[in-house]
Amino acid sequence: MDWEAEGLLDGIEGDAARAARRALLDELHDEGVALEELRRAVDEDRLALLPVERLLASEPRFSAREVSEQSGMDLDYFVTSRRALVFPVPDPDAKAFT
């Protein structure tokens, strides 16, 4: 994608800053973010936050069991910790975590 022609590099000075903007735009576009959403994020000066927004707004993909396996944390400890913090404790195999 030609980000320059799309106007998404306007106002960005310096080669390093422009390269970083291009890399972020490429990454987001490759992940399926539509051009209009990228334009809106640039216009609202929140492009750098877009990866975090997408992560926080994403659908649950992991179960408690998967989180504990991937983190190396014992499942019982994970569940007990959530209970101690008065967080919801879904079924260990329910997709409830992002």
Give an overview of the whole structure.
This protein has 98 residues and is mostly helical. It folds into 2 domains: 15-56; 59-98, no CATH class. The protein contains 5 helices and no strands. It has helices at 15-30, 35-43, 50-56, 64-71, 75-84. The longest helix is centred in the first third of the chain and has 16 residues, at 15-30. The protein starts with 14 loop residues before the first helix and ends in a 14-residue tail after the last helix. The mean pLDDT is 94.
User: What letter string, H or E per element, gives the SSE order?
Assistant: HHHHH
Q: N- to C-terminal separation?
A: 30 Å
Low-confidence stretches: none
Helix content: 40-55%
- The total of beta strands comes to 0
Mean pLDDT: 94
Please tell me what the overall shape is: elongated
- Number of alpha- plus pi-helical segments: 5
How much of the sequence is in beta strands? under 5%
Number of domains: 2
Question: What is the topological layout?
Answer:
Blueprint: H1 15-30, H2 35-43, H3 50-56, H4 64-71, H5 75-84
What features would you highlight for this structure?
0% strand; single chain; 2 domains; mainly alpha; 98 residues; 51% helix
